[in-house]
Amino acid sequence: MFQKIKQTAKHTTIFALGKISTKLVGFILLPIYTKEISVTDFGILGLLEVIDLLGSNVLSIGMPQALLRWHSLADSALKKRKIVFTTFFFLFLVFSSAIILASPFKESLSNTLFNKPQYGFFIIYVFISISFANLARIPQAVLRIEEKSLYYSLTILGQFTISLFLNIYFVAFRKLGVEGILLANVISNGLLLISLLPYLIKRMIIKFDAHLLKEMLAFSYPFIFIALSTTILSLGDRYILTKLSTLSQVGLYSLGYKISNVLKIFVVDSFTLGLPIIGWQLVKDNEHPKEYLAKIFTYLSFVLLWLGLIISIHARNLIQVFALNREYWDAYQVIPFLILGVVLLGWQQHLFFILQIPKKTKQISVILAIAAISNIIANIILIPDHNMMGAAYATIISFFIAFLLALIAVHKYYPIKFEIKRILLLLGTALVVFIISFYINTPYPILNLCLKILISLIYPAILFVVPFYEDDEKKKMREMISRIFKNR
Question: Which of the listed ranges 129-133, 146-150, 325-329 does the model predict with the highest average pLDDT?
Answer without folding.
Answer: 129-133
